[in-house]
Amino acid sequence: MATVLKAAVREDLRGSRLSKVRQEGNIPAVVYGKKFGSKAIAISESDFIQVLRAEGKTGVFKLEVDGGKTDVMVYDTQFDTIKNQYIHIDFYAVDMKVEMDADVPVSIVGESKGVKDGGVLQQILFELSVHALPANIPDSIEVDVSDLDINDSLQVGDIKSGKDYEINNEAEETIVAIGVPDEEPEEDEVPEEEGEPELVDAEGGSDSEGEEQE
């Protein structure tokens, strides 16, 4: 059964209305597409979070608006880290029969030889652009770094496209590299004291006082 997210049309588009929408536990949003046009909506924040967890950023699901259901993807999200809430969502109405471009998260798997030897993993690309039918867009693209040693890197050209999608990025783009180990800071040397240490005899006198007079 396809996931369905219900939405209400927003008739009042004034900025002052947006705060009230959020106070009611909803998120202001917009859905648009070549055939769909554009429509301002509001969705339940709790329902949206459940759908996002179930379908992921690149998943296709049904958006119910005005009694009709449309296949959509999450195109963009705006999140307020201070208030810890979504403040706006963009949905894209997709045509399931038409290929499209989408950004897919890169998932690093494995532990590289270089990291085991103290090297530093540096991830350059966190997303890859793919071209595919909406239903064939992957949730993520795994990149195995197990064989990478220090000073090794992995480019887009080293990753094979899936049977249902093509990667759009240039082959020369670097996804991940293993840098040299961080140099350990040298310990501060304690300067030696100049001269010979003063010797103290058992009676508490010092050698510098000289011999007792007869």
Automatic annotation (TrEMBL):
Query: Where is the Large ribosomal subunit protein bL25 beta domain positioned along the sequence?
Result: 100-181
The keyword rRNA-binding belongs to this UniProt entry's keyword annotation: yes
Q: Which Pfam families match?
A: Ribosomal_L25p (PF01386), Ribosomal_TL5_C (PF14693)
Q: Using the UniProt annotation, give all residue ranges assigned to the region (Disordered).
A: 178-214
The GO cellular component terms are:
cytosolic large ribosomal subunit
Q: SUPFAM superfamilies, per this entry? A: Ribosomal protein L25-like
**Any one Gene Ontology molecular-function term assigned to this protein's record:** 5S rRNA binding
Q: Which GO terms describe its biological process?
A: translation
Supply the InterPro entries for this chain.
Answer: Rbsml_bL25/Gln-tRNA_synth_N (IPR020056), Ribosomal_bL25/Gln-tRNA_synth (IPR011035), Ribosomal_bL25_b-dom (IPR020057), Ribosomal_bL25_C (IPR037121), Ribosomal_bL25_long (IPR001021), Ribosomal_L25_dom (IPR029751), Ribosomal_uL5_bac-type (IPR020930)
Q: Does the keyword Ribonucleoprotein apply?
A: yes
What UniProt keywords apply to this chain's record, in alphabetical order?
Ribonucleoprotein, Ribosomal protein, RNA-binding, rRNA-binding
Q: Which residues form the Large ribosomal subunit protein bL25 L25 domain?
A: 5-91
Please list the residue ranges that the record marks as compositionally biased, kind Acidic residues. 181-214
Instruction: Spell out the subunit comment.
Output: Part of the 50S ribosomal subunit; part of the 5S rRNA/L5/L18/L25 subcomplex. Contacts the 5S rRNA. Binds to the 5S rRNA independently of L5 and L18.
What this chain does, per the entry, is described as:
This is one of the proteins that binds to the 5S RNA in the ribosome where it forms part of the central protuberance.
| The family this protein is said to belong to | Belongs to the bacterial ribosomal protein bL25 family. CTC subfamily.
- The protein in question is named Large ribosomal subunit protein bL25
The organism named in the record is Paenalkalicoccus suaedae
